[in-house]
Design a protein that fits this description.
Length: 560
């Protein structure tokens, strides 16, 4: 069957016994997931906590000691297509996924406890736009829950890897796929879908974690007659995109999930006049019902595939002397958005990279101040646009230090020549671009930046010839960890941007580092394995000798 898991229960249970892996204390509750945000031993959610700050209070590995960081072990993923997933950690066990494998690994020794491998039919990859990848999983009530490329959500027993339930979410033949990690919020498993490039009608779905039964479905594109449908030309909204392919964040006090909604389909704006709600923006929902609380659109009538799914990082921040509950997004359109997460009000909108399609934000109308570049583009003229197709940053998540009030972002400095062709009707499941694009690449194509969220200004920045497409993670030890496409895993001083340590992994680093502790020892874990959309489409000579092949690496201080 499509997406079938090959699993040997006897072998898995034998591996559990042989490893000494504890079969107790595996049931995670909603309270456990909330508490894990401050835990140094547990990473139970995507984003290293519901606020998605990707910050750890651990400081055994710090500015002074990081020079002594050495590999503890590496685990092979048997995959050449890239490792973008964020690991989860519970009771010293690491859970990792790629598009076809789920594995549980002893975090101290690197020994495999169990694994499941998924076999897909060849036609599966036809409608996966931007890399044959998976970005992670969720832990809840003793289950490891993940999505598959062919639109199944599956739950595995976290002790043994045995499949407990499977739910079909969508039809891959209609352009849908799942590459993001699910999020468990208020006891509901929430998943998004990819597929805007193939004319899907985007949605979020909530599932019962006990059975996999679908509890609710909220479409990002209104049906004819529904509120917002008048922002689409004729019936163009029926294949209007708005996919939800990157995991959101959750505020357990407000009982609100924040999720980014991506670009409209087709990218060509000439055949879908209007604001194209509810694409390119942030959606706030009740996790138990899927009811939309508010929606804030960042790019009405998006022309440039600016998307809107980038990481949504929460913080409580002083603004004009008043503490505000905010949610922040470094957007592909090159703007850094700070919103009030209680009502979606725009509090600050500023560029964090070079942009020319907008002159800033109109707070009275909550719309961008479009320039002639944008106006000429939607009229079909050839224009030079900054940022380019990859955006000011891409899917890879940023991290936040509340103590420094800084966001650590891997940015792109790449423009494009752009022209929208003649519009045509989009067919579900078929490519929906209808534009021509040529990249404009300066000498340094990207930067790691430490950015003030209220101004978009960088305290410091490190240039890279080839842009980084890895996530960042920062710690109380004064370090930010990230990786390079050329394979270096690096630790940077958060105060000045100095690279203090680097390690050459076997392939490009496109994943999401995490840090955790066991028995008083701090570990750092990251995936190595080049892949994803940027690596697929860049012709950089620097990558000619970067081999494929995915592996998971864990580091600790020498002698610990």
């Amino acid at each position: 069957m499509p997406g079938e898991i090959r699993f040997n229960r006897t072998a898995a249970l034998a591996a559990v016994v042989a490893s000494g892996f504890s079969t107790g204390a595996l049931a995670q509750t909603s309270a456990d997931l909330v508490a894990s945000q401050k835990s140094t031993k547990e990473i139970l959610t995507y984003g290293m906590g519901y606020n998605a700050q990707r910050f750890s209070s651990l400081k055994q590995i710090n500015r002074k000691t990081v020079k002594d960081l050495v590999p503890a072990w590496a685990y092979g993923m048997s995959d050449v297509l890239g490792l973008e997933a964020q690991p989860l950690v519970h009771d010293g066990v690491i859970y990792i996924t790629n598009h076809s494998r789920t594995a549980a690994i002893d975090g101290v020794t690197g020994k495999e406890i169990w694994r499941n491998d998924i076999e897909y039919p060849p036609e599966t990859t036809r409608v996966v736009c931007c890399g044959i990848v998976n970005r992670g999983s969720a832990l809840y009530d003793g289950k490891l829950i993940r999505g598959t490329l062919d639109d199944n959500m599956i739950a595995l027993d976290a002790k043994t890897g045995e499949e407990l339930w499977r739910t079909k979410i969508a039809d891959i033949e209609k352009g849908y796929s799942i590459t993001g990690a699910p999020l468990v919020a208020d006891g509901v498993v929430i998943t998004g879908v990819a597929g805007s490039e193939f004319g899907v009608r985007g949605f979020l779905a909530g599932l019962d974690p006990a059975t996999g039964k679908e509890l609710w479905r909220t479409y990002t594109i209104p049906a004819p007659g529904e509120k917002g449908s008048d922002t689409w030309q004729a019936d163009s909204g029926l294949t209007g995109g708005g996919s939800t392919w990157v995991t959101g964040s959750f505020d357990p006090e407000l009982h609100t999930v924040f999720w980014g909604v991506s670009n409209p389909a087709p990218w060509n704006p000439r055949g879908r006049k209007g604001d194209n709600l509810y694409t390119c923006g942030v959606m706030a929902l009740d996790p138990k019902t899927g009811t939309v609380k508010w929606f804030s659109q960042t790019d009405p009538h998006d022309a440039f595939d600016h998307d809107g799914v980038n990481a949504l990082v929460q913080a409580d921040m002083k603004i004009n002397g008043e503490t505000k509950k905010v949610v922040m997004q470094a957007h592909r359109d090159g703007m850094l958005y700070v919103l009030d997460r209680t009502d979606g009000k725009f509090l600050a909108v500023n560029p964090f990279v070079k942009i020319n399609w907008s002159d800033g934000w109109d707070y009275a109308t909550n719309r961008p101040k479009w320039t002639d570049v944008y106006n000429k583009a939607v009229a079909g003229e050839k224009v030079e646009v900054w940022p380019g197709l990859g955006g000011g940053t891409n899917w890879h998540p940023m991290s936040y230090s509340a103590a420094d009030n800084l966001l650590f972002i891997n940015t792109f400095d790449i423009g494009m020549e752009y022209q929208a062709g003649e519009p045509r009707k989009v067919e579900a499941g078929q490519p929906a671009q209808m534009i021509t694009v040529k990249a404009i690449k300066p000498e340094n194509q990207g930067y790691l930046k430490a950015v003030n969220p209220m101004t978009g200004k960088a305290k410091w920045e490190i240039p890279f010839h080839v842009a980084n497409t890895a996530g960042t993670m920062n710690t109380a030890g004064g370090l930010v960890f990230t990786g390079q496409l050329t394979g270096e895993f690096i630790a940077v001083d958060t105060s000045n941007g100095k690279i203090l340590w680097k390690f050459q992994t076997p392939s490009g680093v496109v994943g999401q580092p995490v840090t955790w502790e066991k028995d008083g020892v701090q570990y750092v874990t990251v995936g190595s394995g080049i892949g994803g959309v940027y690596a697929m489409r860049t012709a950089a000579a620097d990558l000619a000798h970067v081999p494929t092949g995915s592996s998971l690496w864990t580091f600790k201080l020498h002698g610990k």
